[in-house]
Design goal:
Blueprint: E1 7-13, H1 17-32, E2 35-37, E3 46-51, H2 56-75, E4 80-84, H3 85-91, H4 93-98, E5 104-106, H5 114-122, E6 127-129, E7 150-154, E8 156-157, H6 168-171, E9 176-177, H7 180-192, E10 197-201, H8 217-225, E11 232-236, H9 245-253, E12 260-262, H10 270-275, H11 282-295, E13 300-307, H12 314-327, E14 331-336, H13 354-377, E15 383-391, E16 398-403, E17 408-412, E18 421-429, E19 434-438
Parallel strand pairs: 1-2, 1-3, 3-4, 4-5, 5-6, 7-10, 10-11, 12-13, 13-14, 17-19
Antiparallel strand pairs: 8-9, 15-16, 15-18, 16-17, 18-19
The chain binds iron/sulfur cluster.
Iron/sulfur cluster (SF4) binds at residues 159, 161-163, 166, 168-169, 203-204, 239.
Amino acid sequence: MASHNDKRVHIATFGCQMNAYDSERMAGMMAHMGYTPVQNPDQADLIVLNTCSVRRRAEEKVYSYVGELKRLKREKPWLIIGVGGCVAQQEGYSLLRRLPHLDFVFGPDAVTSLPELVTQALQGKRQARTQLGPPPGPAGIIVPADPGLRAMVTVMTGCDNFCSYCVVPYVRGRERSRPAGEILDEVAALVAAGVREITLLGQNVNSYHDPDGGLDFAGLLARVNDVEGLWRIRFTTSHPKDLGQGLIDALAGLDKVMEQMHLPAQSGSNRLLKAMNRGYTREQYLEQVRRLREKVPQVALGSDIIVGFPGETQKDFEQSLSLLSEVRYDFLYSFKYSDRPFTKAGRLEGKLDEDTKGSRLVQLQALQRAIGLEEHQAQAGRVEELLVEGPAKHGQGLMSGRSRAGRVVNFPGPPELAGRLVMVRVTQGRENSLAGELLPATGEYTA
Ligand code: SF4
């Protein structure tokens, strides 16, 4: 067993950016308790799984991972294992019953209880903490010791939309916005720790409403834009039905807000959009895209598409394909539909077989790859501002950064550029990234 001063924690994160954000907070809390993070679960004294139940495959992965930890617990009986996130919320105490090697279970609203849960687990207490609603006391600002250049800040939790396929309103609860003052304090603390780019997170940021002062999301962006020392702001996710002119104007007018938006369509078929309870038609969605591009022509658009929703016909599917061709997204997350607990779609007739869903997904992704490559190739010759993150994953002597629109650009340059803003000219568009060359004016853009 590790000595008192040598405790190690492994946090395994599944799912979305909200979970990644919660995991960062957990790591910060565990650091305060004297735990050092480790990549390898075999070396840990505490393992925390931050789980996702949005798709069945993600949930299955969690169960197989937890199952494998049984061996570790046998070898190291002092090992503490906790399961957090959406699967924990969904299953609650029954997880502890089914998996005797687990010590505690906690939902997304109980993240700040982690130190207490760990302390009590060390004293032998097994428990599930899954009540929804704000935790007692202040949410707390937890800044990681070395947060890096980019960080996330949650502006709201939960969702009131009840899309018919989605488990989020059941496992994350109803929509709750965080007070703007608390968000601004967290942004300022992160900037003081060296962060230069913030991504504001929420299931539906467009319906943000400051409970203390009445600011809407565009107003919040304006306040974050004023934070000194911060260079870049991104946000996700925007629900198409709630995309108002104020937010479009903020994207166009606020210098630190990057020209990128994730605007999930989910389907191109009006019949399915209705069955999904999305609250807009294809035509209304396209009108939102048109309004956005009219004001911010350089905006990079992303989307989610579900294939194989119950009752999806070949014609419905072709309408999703044609939506891709019409909008020409820069990035796309596409998934096969899977039944989720509690949801209305789970009870619908007309489920499609896995082969049909699989072949539609392959077709959709092939179309998006072709569109993405063409869009990237069209960037050749453009001059872009990059925030340099560090050496490129592939290619010697190459550095990598992100453009304002969020595209990855790799270019030859010295390692000292990491953490700086530079200007590059795009020389080539590839499937997943762009190649560029550094422009001599770089010095003017350094921090
Ligand atoms: S907007 Fe719909 S898909 Fe998104 S989290 Fe809410 S219910 Fe789920």
